[in-house]
Specification:
Strand order of the largest sheet: 1-2
Structural class: mainly alpha
Shape: globular
């Protein structure tokens, strides 16, 4: 991997293990640049099923926005 999986999730971004790039959300990047689904990505790198595809702070912001609407 481009980085250690244990050091790939940060509050404001997730680092792609394929290429080391930083994203708020990995899902579209995995599909367009690496032709992988989130489940395929997790399996390829031996990640747990609950490994996030969205940065924690981004997820919290989106959740709060949805609840206020």
């Amino acid at each position: 991997p481009a980085v250690n999986p244990k050091r790939s999730v940060f509050p404001d971004h997730i680092v792609c293990l394929e290429d080391g790039k930083k994203f708020k959300s990995l899902k579209r990047h995995l599909a367009t640049d690496h032709n992988l689904t989130p489940d395929e990505y997790r399996a390829k790198w031996g990640l747990p099923a609950d490994y996030p595809m969205v940065a924690p702070s981004y997820s919290a912001t989106r959740s709060a926005l949805a609840k206020s609407s």
